[in-house]
User: What shape does this take?
Amino acid sequence: MTALRVLIVDDEPLARRKLRRLIEAESGFACAGECTNGEEALERLKADRFDAMFLDVQMPGLSGFDVVERAPAERLPPIVFVTAFDRYAVKAFEIAAVDYLLKPFDRERFQRALQRLRERAEAPGKRVASEELRALLEAVGERDTTDRFLARKGDGFVTVRADDVSWIEAQGNYVALHTGAESLLLRDTLSALERRLDPRRFARAQRSAIVNLDQVAALRPWQKDEHVVVLKNGVRIDVSPSFKDRIEARLGALRG
Assistant: This one.
């Protein structure tokens, strides 16, 4: 059986070295090239053909998504996106990625990605047409706000609709998405997430919390100049004085 030719695209030398080592340790795969940025990747894709590509999302200059958008459609192989941030996962899957590796990943997780590449190679009819992939990419790129998340649950991911999130809490290097049923972790910062949320529906209540305004039952005074947001599920969240007027104004606009 001919080994599948894999192209590695990552601006970090250590990351490229790890991917090459893992690929070369598996039968049926061969590292056929390495690129340090998106521009190099485009040149390699134009000049050669590959059976698979491990593509970093965040790189100086062109991002991994930019590479997909600009590469010749007929030259795009099945893609496994590689990144350190969960927030790109939804977009990666929406443009028909075979898999999504979140750094740091172990050998077992990498092998599952290779297995998915094998399955895709054995069933080429399952490949998304290049025109459809580009249409999906364009549609995703036009979005101004996040309307769903891909949060970690156990060893995998689950999709969470933004409308189902009652509030969001900062927890170290993660944020917790609180829904009516559970709390799920997303690797992101609260500030970065706030910039991608619809400001008509979500508002910062304090440094470590964002609330879904549709889930707010009341904004009540507490002690002295302090206030609390009471959610429909009974959860109470302290509101910092610097955010109180903003939440009050947005609630009025939403219900006015």
Remarks:
- The longest helix spans residues 107-122.
